[in-house]
Amino acid sequence: MRWTQRLTFQWMLGALFAGGVMAMQATPVSAAEIRATVSFSASDYEAKQSGGMLKIPVIRSNVRTAKASVNYFTTDGSARAGIDYTAKSGALYWRRGDSSAKTIEIPIRTVAAYSGSRTFTVHLTSPEGAADLGIPSLAKVTIVPDTSVPDVDPQPYIDSFSPASGPVGTVVTVIGSGFTGVNAAWVGTSHNAPVSVLSDTSVAVTIPSDASTGAIGIFNPSHVSFTATSFTVTSGPSDPGYPQPYIQSFSPTSGGVGTIVTINGSGFTGLNAAWVGAAHNASVAVLSDTQVKVTVPEGATSGAIGIFNPAHVAFTASPFTVTSSPPPPPPPGNGALSLRTQGNRFIDGNGNYIQLRGVNYSGFEFAAIQGWSGNDPSGGQAGQPGGPNWAALKAWKVNILRIPLNEASWLGGSCVDTSGNVINPDPAGNYR
């Protein structure tokens, strides 16, 4: 404790006239009067799934003149940092005599709507200066559905399906409502059945090779619905002509995305799908019953290559190793277009995908025969003074322009018109 002087005027006069030494009366002041506490203003806070900034006040009580600070950090509960919210940590500071509340700001991330709620916790810790932790020093944040945001994915409902049984490859028509947005289907223990949305009231589900007897489930990103009765998977493929494929060898055994792998074996007729490691969307080209080519897709990982027909599957005995894709070549220094292929796409010098949009500009092939001016080979003589309408081509976002030429012009030959006159095919020297 510390001591403070408390003097009265009467006592001071008495001491003065007595000529004695003044004695001072001391009164103790407790430590609780000079130390502050820092705490949250509440122990529970709420945020919306639709995102935004959550602001949590931190208050300081018993304020006197001393400085104070406190650290804070977040921890996951059912909510995950980087998915549902952005993790935060740091420190809050108060100057001498500062009684204002400080704010912790935590971004809530916008995610696809989900049912129920998710939580995480904010902690206060390590107070410094004239401060102690008060209560509450923990705050629970609950992320709840935003009722103002409509659910864009409807709840599907199944009324009926047919047929009720069939072998692998059978196409089952499911009737009901709310099928818009359906993007996945299950058949028994198989969770990879192909599904096609025919309308909001009808979808077609194809029985996959690993299906078992059980309910059919259809999914959109938010909801699921299952048939009330089971679909019975019967033995044998829907087309008895599908053979069991066998793999003898494949090459190369490693490569990056876009690598074309040649597989040799037998029974390849009817193959319609391929896997490379964890990627189940590899393109496959059947060259013959004994050879196929599989293109390594984006997302592929090192692992066995699988090839499928509607009834059977075969995997390579050893894995294909996916290596890092080679970096795109640097753009040419002279500003010319750099273009290469990766898989079935065009890539520019910076590694960006390029979509070709081209037009044909006709007329140049007639310049030599007609004897048009070499300074305006497709302009005024062809009914379009000034050459191509570049503004229109730019508005159409054209990046490929086809210009037909007369071979005599760029080979340095000559042309003869119907009157027998010899005409210079390159009067302005544009082609050589």
Question: How would you describe this structure to a colleague?
Answer:
The protein is mainly β. Strand 16 and strand 17 form a beta hairpin.
Q: Order of strands across the widest beta sheet? A: 21-23-26-25-24-27-28
Helices and strands: which structural class?
mainly beta
Gross morphology: extended
**Helical element count?**
4
Rg over CA atoms: 39 Å
Let me know the average pLDDT.
79
The total strand number stands at: 36
Strand percentage, roughly? 35-45%
Ends apart, CA distance between termini: 101 Å
Percent helix range: under 10%
Indicate the low-confidence ranges by residue numbers: 1-33, 236-240
Q: What composes the largest sheet?
A: 7 strands, antiparallel
